[in-house]
Amino acid sequence: MSAESDHRVVAIDGPAASGKSTVARRVAENLGFLYVNSGAMYRAFTWLALERGIDCEDAEVVSALVAATDFTCVADEGAGVVGLDGKVAGDEVHGAEVNAQVSHIAAVPAVRDRIFEVLHAFPKEHEVVMEGRDIGSVVFPETPYKFYIDASPEIREARRRAQGLEDSIADRDRKDSTRKAAPLTIAEDAVVVDSSHLGIDEVVGEVLAQLAAQGMSEAERK
């Protein structure tokens, strides 16, 4: 960990619908670590921007909103909970409109900088499993515990449809991979796990086995 991080961070990255959220939550439960979903913060802020009638592609206006918004993220029942101006975001952050706009919001440097600060506060108090798209490559590049959960575009499209979501995986991948600010990429030292034809238990087992091989044993857990 860096000098500003007192506890360990397990970074779990991957594209949309790769299964990384479920895997990260399960790994955190197994380790007794705090689960933090960085994407939930971007989604929550996207929802706020839409609620305020803001054009999510207008970086200047979005930057002004983030400067005027009070972000909070506290630990609650083993997970980080996002608050914006004192209001906790709920299931509405998973709506189709948020799905369509969140990549635009995530590309705004002011948003990324503010959420970066919030994310970096967690390891000062907790052992953390954090999932997102740039946790191992940008947010916590110094952590030795990096994973990238992947799956074929066809499998990920099918998973989204099964969830009742119609946003385009190809469009989301394109936006996430080509944005100037912290594009989706695989950290050089990340362990890549393809979940296309694996069950969740198998993927979680692989991640836990890799962590055990790196010395994160039961006796070492805080």
What does this structure look like?
- 39% of the residues are buried.
- The longest helix is centred in the first third of the chain and has 14 residues.
- It is built from nine helices and eight strands.
- The chain is α/β, with parallel strands linked by helices and 222 residues long.
Chart the SSEs and their pairings.
Elements: E1 9-13, H1 20-31, E2 34-37, H2 38-51, H3 59-68, E3 71-76, E4 79-84, E5 87-88, H4 96-106, H5 109-121, E6 128-132, H6 135-139, E7 145-150, H7 153-162, H8 169-178, E8 191-194, H9 200-213
Parallel strand pairs: 1-6, 1-7, 2-6, 7-8
Antiparallel strand pairs: 3-4, 4-5
Helix pairs in contact: 1-9, 2-4, 2-5, 3-5
CATH fold topology: Rossmann fold
Radius of gyration of CA atoms, rounded to a whole number = 17 Å
Sheet with the most strands? 5 strands, parallel
CATH class placement: Alpha Beta
Percent helix, as a range, is 40-55%
- Helix and strand content put the structural class at alpha/beta
Number of discrete domains: 1
Distance between the termini: 15 Å
Order of helical and strand elements: EHEHHEEEHHEHEHHEH
Low-confidence regions:
none
Q: Give the overall shape, derived from the CA principal axes.
A: globular
Q: Name the strands of the widest sheet in spatial order.
A: 2-6-1-7-8
The CATH level-2 architecture is identified as 3-Layer(aba) Sandwich
* Range of strand content: 15-25%
CATH superfamily: P-loop containing nucleotide triphosphate hydrolases
Helical stretch tally: 9
- Would you count the extended β strands for me? 8
Average pLDDT figure? 88
